[in-house]
Amino acid sequence: MKKNYLEVAKFEFLKTIKKKSFWLATLFLPIFIGVIGLISGLSSVDAAKKMENPISFTKIYIYDPENVIRSAFLVSPFEATQDLDAAQAVVKQDSSTILVKLSANYYQDLTFDLYYRKDADFIGTASMPTVINALVKQSAIADIQNPGVINILNGTSTTTSYTYDDNGKLVKEGFEKYLLPIASLVIFFMAVFISSSFLLQSVSAEKENRMIETILSIVDKKSLMFGKMIGLMGVMFVQLSTWLVLGLGIYKVVMGKFSLPIPIDFTNIDLSLLPLNIFLILMGFLFFAAIMTGTGAVGTGAEDSRNLSSIFIILSIFPIYLMQLLITDPNGTIATVLSYFPFTSFMVLLIRNSFGALPLPELILGIFTSVVYVVAAMYIAMKLFELGCLMYNRRPSLKEVLGYMNIKPFKK
Amino acid sequence: MAKYSIKIDHFSKSFGEVKAVKDLSFEVNDGEVFAFLGTNGSGKTTTIRCLLKIYQADEGNLLINGKEYSEELNQIIGYLPEERGLYRDVSVIDILTYTARLRGIDSDDAMKRSLAYLDMVGLILHKDKQISQLSSGMQQKVQLGTALIHNPEILILDEPFKGLDPINRQLFVDILKEKGKKGATILYSTHVIDEAQKMADRLLIIKDGNRLEYGSVNEVRARHGSKSIFIEFSGKAPVEKNELYSVIITNKTAEIIPNKDITEEKILENLLKQGVKLVSFRLDYPSLNQVFVDIMK
């Protein structure tokens, strides 16, 4: 009997994952992202191929009064022309031709104009400036004798950054610096805004269909509430695992098919930040799960509860609008203040910790406040649940809520 | 303390400024069928919810088998709430086994009991259907199943006949009678006073949270005025009211309530004068329905 909350948890877990709508919602997002990624990947490959061979034109007329481009480079489809009017007349009629008119004062102003029909190949016209610039550059380099200078002019320098960590260890900087914050934020969002919404649905539906009183006559309110939370946390893990497996699958497929331009060195990810991130995600889930339970219980139905919960969701996603500021100045006043405001604290602490920007005293304070906020949210949710779960067809007033929580002067 | 009993002692409950129940006391004895009567808003549901700790009582003791309600008592209590419903997207068998499991019954036994119940009420072929796929009558049977699945010794039913079609109502009555015969203690609230007179051993009538009547059905009836005259007739019905009596007519039967100091002989004489053909004529206390109406006036 003492393990009734586990029975509730099991029921809630199975009830949710047996639903087709759950799997549709779970599979839709990664599949959608995968399909979009595949389409954009294929498009990129196609575009890259076109960029590699951008000369889709049958004739490219070069009008070059200063002879900037070496004539040796002007092989088909390039053709030098002195008769601008004749070349323009051809281009007007034929979309597979293009006219490049270099300025009469090119060495000073470095400008050239392109003329083509409006239905000419988009990629070809878009890549033409690059092609002409390359021709101009190669023509200029051809006059230089020093191979070192030629090498410099032909290439661009590559950069590698190294940073010293707190222990003086040298760490190579790369894209992986952003991997942990991005992954943590994605998981946080999914856990908080998708998985905790199952709790809202569960409580409001149970109230709406009047099953709640039957259940409350068997289990106490705490067992019911915590059972639901545990069960739906299980749902969250199933959902996250599904996304992880699908995400890795999609990553493998994409990496196999297309080469990712950003090399990731997984060994450079600072795993020491992970435990606090996991803790903050878990606390964030419990906090918002409690909020959703409370709003589910006081709403008159699923629709009403959703409307109520949107207030808290807006408050909690507020840091997204300040993301740039949080990344560039993770220890600034705004980041610090938002780290201790209940609805934003979990996300802001998560971002700051992911960048390793959380000083030890703040880290300890952050853990403490997170626990306090979760306990407070649980208490309030419990009270709202007690007050609202059997209040059919109407919401409790704020006065009733405050009075129920024994807050003076609303105390009965 | 009797084995399966309920005792409410000086119980009060308020919601804000509204006093829902005021200093209410009554007892339901072991094996007794006890009717809890009152109009809407009289405090019946509040009392039942406080008894089951769904609400917290402000004052008084609400005891089942001498103890305050706890989850341990779930195995012997079956509860049918007034505001009832079921998960719409869960199968019939899953709901029954879930409620059984919550009451501490192991999975195999929960499944056996659920199937046996569904067989008894003719729903075995619908066991895998979702609740939303069932008719309201079928849903009512499943709902009753959630209260009976663990074969409880104490049944607490809040308006059990509310919203029932005639067939299900008879089914519920038969099941309750059967449970009563087997010695279960039954506390039920109802508006169906006729049914209470037939089924209940004792009763309580409350109004605005106050106790108005309490005792056996016949004691309560006896406390309310002189005896009524119950007749069966054929043909012409008696006039509804005259200087001797007032009457409640139901088809070919009638309950005649004599005015003060009017004897049954005078009533009989008057009826015969009216040309009423009497099939039977007997004296009895006023019906519970009449008592209820009188009290609530």
Looking across the biggest beta sheet of chain A, what order are the strands in?
2-1-3-4
Count of the domains of chain B: 2
Shape of chain A: elongated
Poorly predicted spans of chain B:
none
The second-level CATH architecture of the largest domain in chain B is 3-Layer(aba) Sandwich
Summed over residues and divided by their number, the pLDDT of chain A gives a mean of 83
Query: N-to-C SSE series of chain A?
Result: HHEEHEHEHHEEHHHHHHHHHH
Distance between the termini of chain B: 37 Å
Overall CATH class of the largest domain in chain B: Alpha Beta
Number of continuous helical runs of chain A: 16
Largest sheet data of chain A: 4 strands, mixed
**Record field, number of beta strands of chain B:** 14
Low-confidence stretches of chain A: none
N- to C-terminal distance of chain A: 34 Å
Number of strands of chain A: 6
Shape of chain B: globular
DSSP helix fraction of chain B: 25-40%
The neighbouring-strand order within the major sheet of chain B is: 6-7-8-3-9-10
Tell me the count of domains of chain A. 2
Transmembrane segments (chain A): 21-42, 178-200, 230-254, 274-298, 310-327, 333-351, 363-382
Protein name (chain A): ABC-2 type transporter transmembrane domain-containing protein
InterPro entries (chain A): ABC2_TM (IPR013525)
Membrane topology (chain A): Multi-pass membrane protein
